[in-house]
Amino acid sequence: MASAEQLKALLQSHIDEDDAQFFSIAMQLAAHEAKRGHGKLAKELRELIDNAKGQRQQGLAQPIPLAKPKGELSGLLSVTYPKLRMSDMVLSTQVGSRLERLIKEHRQIHKLRSHGLSPRKKLLLVGPPGTGKTLSASILAGELGLPLFVVRLDSLMTKFMGETAAKLRMIFDAIQQTRGVYLFDEFDSIGSQRGLSNDVGEIRRVLNSFLQMVEQDNSDSLLVAATNHPELLDHALFRRFDDVVEYQLPESQEIMTLLKNKLATFQTSRMQWNKAAEVAAGLSYGDITQACEDAIKAVIIHNREKVTHSDLMLSLKERHRVRQR
C-alpha cells in the first residue's frame, strides 16, 4: 500500500504537470510493491509506466526535464542535464569497465528488481585531481538520461549545531523523491575520520548522520562521492559504498589517445605522438586537455592553420611548470 506522502506527491506532480517526477514516484511505488511480494502488481505498474514514457517521448524532441530544486534546496543543489557519453572520455580499462558495469545494471534495473536484486548505486571515486572523477559523474548522468545534481558543500556546511545535518536530510529527501545522479565532490570535507586531532563535534555529528542516511537510502538515484584524499575518509564510509573506483594519472597509450582526441578538431603537422606522451607523463587528464587547448589558442591568435609538434611540446612543458608551483 502506498504511503500517504507518496500519494500526495504523486497527485502534486500530476497537478504540476511534472511527468518525470510523476514517473519517478510511480516507480518507487512499483518497487515498494515488489518488496512486499506483490510481483505481478509491480510488473504491471512498471509496464504501464514504460508505456506512458514511450508515448510521451514520441512527441518530444527533448527529454522531459525533471523539476529543479526549489526553495532552500536550490541553495544546496545545482542541476545540469549532461549529454556526455563514455566515448567522450579517455579512461583506463579498469575504470571504464567499472563504469560500464554500473551503467548496464541501471539500464537493466527492472530485470534486476524482478530477481530481488538492486543495481550498484553508491559510488566512491578516489584519485588525484584532474583524473576524471567529476567528469565521470556527468558521463553517468548522460548515459542514463538523468539530471546531475551537484551538492554545494559551501552551503551545506555551517557553524551552527545541527543545521548541517538538517540540510543533509533535505538532500537525501531529494535523492529519494527525484531520481538522478547526486555528486558529493570534495567528499573528505564531510567524511573525515572521527577522532582526528582537528576534528570538531559538529563534523562528527554530520558524518554520523550521513552514515545513517546512506544506510537507509532505498531510492533508484545514484550517489557519487569524489575525493582527492581517500586517506582522510572515515573507515566506516567505505563499506557503505557499493563500489570504490580508483583513478590514476594516464599512462602512455591513454595520453596519446587523449592528445589525438583533443586535437582532432584542428589541423596538425608533423606530430610525434610518442615523444609528446613522454613529455606529458605525470600530467593529469585535465592538465593534458588544457595543454591541447592552449596550443590551439596560440595557433589561432597568431593566424596559423596548424598545430605543430613544437606548439604541443611547449604547452605540455608549460603545464608541468604550472603543476610544480
**Number of structural domains:** 3
The helix count comes to 15
**Broad shape:** elongated
Major sheet details? 6 strands, mixed
DSSP helix fraction: 40-55%
Q: Give the name of the CATH architecture of the largest domain.
A: 3-Layer(aba) Sandwich
How much of the polypeptide forms β-strand, as a percent range? 5-15%
- CATH homologous superfamily annotation of the largest domain: P-loop containing nucleotide triphosphate hydrolases
The SS-based structural class is alpha/beta
In angstroms, what separates the terminal alpha carbons?
A: 61 Å
CATH fold title of the largest domain: Rossmann fold
Mean pLDDT: 83
Strands of the largest sheet, in order across it? Answer: 1-3-4-5-2-6
State the name of the first-level CATH class of the largest domain: Alpha Beta
* Computed Rg: 23 Å
Task: Please write the string of helix (H) and strand (E) elements.
Answer: HHHEHHEHEHHEHHEHEHEHHEH
Q: Which ranges are low-confidence, i.e. pLDDT below 50, for 5 or more consecutive residues?
A: 57-66
Total count of strands: 8
